[in-house]
Predict the structure of Dihydrolipoamide acetyltransferase component of pyruvate dehydrogenase complex.
Amino acid sequence: MTIFNLPDLGEGLTEATLLSWLVAEGETVHVDQPIAEVETAKSSIEVPSPYAGTVHTLHGSTGDTLEVGNPLITVTTEDDADSPADSSTDGRAGALSYREEERAGTAAPESQDTDEETEGSGNVLIGYGTSQASSARRRRKRSGAPRADTQRPTDAAAQGSAAQRSTTSPGPAQAPRVSSPLVRRMARRQGVELHSISGSGPEGLIMRRDVLAAGEQPAAAGAGAPQREPARDAAQQDAAAAAGAVDSRTGLAVRERVAVTGMRKAIAAKMSQSRREIPEATVWQDVDVTALLDMRAQLKDSGQEAPSVLALLSRFVVAGLQRYPELAARIEHTDAGDQIVHFAGINLGFAAQTETGLVVPVVREAQRLSARGLNTEIRRLAESARDGQISSKEMSGGTFTVNNYGVFGSDGATPIINHPEAAILGIGRIIDRPWAVGGELAVRKVTTLTLAFDHRVCDGGAAGGFLNFVATCMGDPTAALADL
């Protein structure tokens, strides 16, 4: 038997939360078939199998936290069937090392495969996987129907399940074509079986609209059969068990307990580290942005692309950081003592709210982009984050962060610095306020800019100078953009 360990998921991630199994024990899997959906501190991803064979053991239950390098799934392959002595070990002895996993998807085939068989799926994680058509890489031979002696279910129930599948499906089980983890999550919540849906996307890809349509359809003709409830993960079961218990401190009944895992755990750790390690200070300034909104309206009326307020703010922030680079630096601890590290460029992060929590996508080399270029990149990264398809690289390496909490109706806030950066700038909602213009009172569009900065890196002079520069640009964008 071959044990496949949870692979290196990149960016130093050491664990992941198991959201769901996409295969069952006794089921036949092929190379690159998604076998599990896991959530890391960065995003939700599907883990593909580097082996073809029969699933023998699933190591873990939904809701469990799995560590990188520990067993994920045990598969009985054709090679195992040819060498029964090797498969009689306790399983742990067959666990593959990181390098062995790396070679798993590139074993030499015994015979020449067809173009369809040899073409990779592109499901690549750190350390293993296959890529699209590369003549220099070789693939493990795919078998057709599994050999009888390779299916070794662990109990009678597994044998019955395998027998039932063999009568209904002539070939190996194929995973439904789904690219977004959010679609799978939506299907689980609505109790929709993805195998029963015909995708309307390219090449039968299952989209959100397909899941929604399936969820709205009335029960099929044998509706007299009991309805299958969506699977409840371990965290939900623990929460249900806690219901009815009385908290000794407050005397109130406990309604629910929610485990801090995955992305929420990463956010909690990052924010706690920031508060614990960074001596931050905060400055803020009210800004009349009436002229900024008028400029955007004129661009729209002329049929031109109008960058968002966040994109324009980002462009002014980049210009300000080029004048006050210490705010895009960071503190590093070395054997020779603490050092302030300055960078030749700006990687600008921005806060984006998703269904799974707050993430910070990063626009790399932001100083090279115009306001329109920033607008395009911000939109792309935000959509990828909300769809759960953003990569770990696109959410790391930032040197400064902007946060538009005004979209949630907040006038102002004291943002927490995204460790290990040195500063973060937030913008509140834009509202009508009385404002003195030319010595007379007028109603203007006003917002509040708030800057939190690491006092070890710079002092109030630099922080105040940077904030005033950005505020001036927001107040008179035409003149500012002429100089940028």
In short: Confidence is low (pLDDT under 50) at residues 85-124, 130-158, 165-173, 218-232. Residues 91 and 282 are 56 Å apart (CA to CA). The chain has two domains: 2-175, 263-483.
